[in-house]
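hey can u check if this looks right to u? its 330 residues, i copy pasted from the old doc so theres a chance i mangled smth
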Amino acid sequence: MEMMEMVQRFPDQLMEAMQIGEAAQIRPAVEINKIYVTGMGGSGIGADFVSKFIQGHCRVPYLVSKSYETASYVDKNTIVIASSYSGNTEETLANLNSCIAQGARIICVASGGKVIQLAMENGFEYVRLPDNWPSPRACLGFSLVVQLFILKKLGFIDEGFENDLREAIDLLKGESQSIKEKAKHLADTLFNKRSIIYATDRIEPVAVRFRQQINENAKRLCWHHVIPEMNHNELVGWREYASNEVVIFLRNSDDYPRNQQRIELTKEIVNHYCGTSIELYSKGNSLICRSLYLVHLTDFATVMLAQLNQVDAVEVKVIDYLKKALSDQA
């Protein structure tokens, strides 16, 4: 399956993920005071999105770890969600084993591999994902949607997110042609340029996702930062004109008013130094819908940018090399 086909299937993946999440057998939480998610890359980013989506609703902390090491506060009052599409992610497995030793309640999310094997051997709850997607980063829909359903079944959030997801699916399908046209324009603008992505803190996962997709799909370096934090540091670094730099502002019409003012002033400043700056506005009536709209648009753009760069969007040989080299040194 080519990356373009995987991106096109994103709305259908969201619908399938809702069906998987609804069917998941997860017991309600008892005496739990925190949730700890361990995951890397395309699996870990799903937890970042969920963290923002539930920020004003979840009654316990939702903590995301992208590390080998486990926090000391993970204990018997912690639910640990181990998210790894392949089920064999080295860092996630190391973290998961430590969480088991520290007595946490474990819920696994994977398509197979050692994560599911551990769950079955130890009687842990688990949600098994389809295993026919060749690229884990194309499985964001499975990761974030299933985690939302897990939280609902645990009793930490209500079902309101389901309507937001349905809104997103309908919007992405209805705006399919428009999204592709905008993505083509964006890819043309980014071709042979260094991309710099800015967004407000509430949609930082969208900016992270966009950066990661430029890295993996288009095989290019770029960076991102968030407003208001970048106004306290990175803004000072804009001192020299660079015609090959494109700044992309990811925006929502309902961003916090002071942050909207900050974006306008930040644009005014960086426009003196970058070759081009553009704004991408989200669509939809909820944070979930707006975020997924921007994800779908920028995912398309990075695959189109890969085509312009004449590279295979699926290929990650350097990551494969790193994994093998680490395996040889184990």
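Residues 3-158 form a domain with the Rossmann fold fold (CATH 3.40.50.10490).
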